Amino acid sequence: MLEADRVTLTYGATTALRDVSLTLAPGSRTALMGPSGSGKSSLLHCLAGVLVPGHGQVLVDGQDLTGLSDRERSRLRLERMGVVFQFGDLVPELTVAENVMLPLQLLGTRHAAARSRALELLGELGVADVADSRTGAVSGGQAQRAAVARALVHEPRVVLADEPTGSLDTVNAEAVLDAMVALSTGIGATLLVVTHDNLVASHLDELVVMRDGALDGAHDAALGARGVVG
Ligand SMILES: Nc1ncnc2c1ncn2[C@@H]1O[C@H](COP(=O)(O)OP(=O)(O)OP(=O)(O)O)[C@@H](O)[C@H]1O
Ligand SMILES: [Mg+2]
């Protein structure tokens, strides 16, 4: 279970999140939508433990991330989460396959096994042909699919993805979303996808909408009433 409890986050004078509470049930599949600047990435970064809120708690299986050191949060993220960042964070000097292998290798998987798993996943996402290209030399859409593969390769409990199909055309966006939903469902992971795209959101079960740093009350209440999110 992943939970934000009354999370407030400010950047200098800007309040990006005000008192946001959200519970993602184990295995739930949720779309996070809302206008540009409404706080979607900020919330995802808090849930991933990349940013620590000024107030409130982020609970991963009951453990409060905000009480951990940077190192402990990184470790917990590696062990339990897969994150696709909005602006990418693949290592440009490494190949696509090497980037995807990283989480497995950091967790102790040997090179050959990590590579074979990475290639399998890249194949499922339709980018096996660029496995041995440096990520700095592939297209935006190919890099995005590599980032999706890297987020799933170590079979995390939680997958958080920020606009994972933003650089893809409609056909490829749907294919990647389908693969992402199928793969995360296959491992029983909880999935949260930030998107501007209604078509992408329609591949998920739940919808959370942000407005001006807060969860939109109408959607929140509707989802809460269904007892899954909120
Ligand atoms: N590093 C930063 N420093 C200062 N302000 C920031 C920073 N990152 C985000 N903000 C501000 O915080 C608010 C929320 O930003 P956030 O990136 O969470 O929005 P978003 O919903 O992800 O938008 P988009 O759909 O454009 O990605 C905005 O007002 C933004 O300008
Ligand atoms: Mg964003």
TrEMBL record:
UniProt-listed InterPro entries: AAA+_ATPase (IPR003593), ABC_transporter-like_ATP-bd (IPR003439), ABC_transporter-like_CS (IPR017871), ABC_transpr_LolD-like (IPR015854), P-loop_NTPase (IPR027417)
GO cellular component: plasma membrane
Key words, A-Z: ATP-binding, Nucleotide-binding
Every ABC transporter domain range: 2-229
Gene3D superfamilies, sorted: P-loop containing nucleotide triphosphate hydrolases (3.40.50.300)
Source domain of life: Bacteria
Residue ranges crossing the lipid bilayer per the database entry: none
PROSITE patterns to which the protein is assigned, alphabetical: ABC_TRANSPORTER_1 (PS00211), ABC_TRANSPORTER_2 (PS50893)
Listed SMART domains: AAA (SM00382)
GO MF annotations in UniProt: ATP binding; ATP hydrolysis activity; transmembrane transporter activity
Record-linked PANTHER family: ABC TRANSPORTER RELATED, IMPORT ATP-BINDING PROTEIN
Name of this protein: Putative ABC transport system ATP-binding protein
Species of the source: Jiangella mangrovi
The organism's taxonomic lineage, starting at the top: Bacteria, Bacillati, Actinomycetota, Actinomycetes, Jiangellales
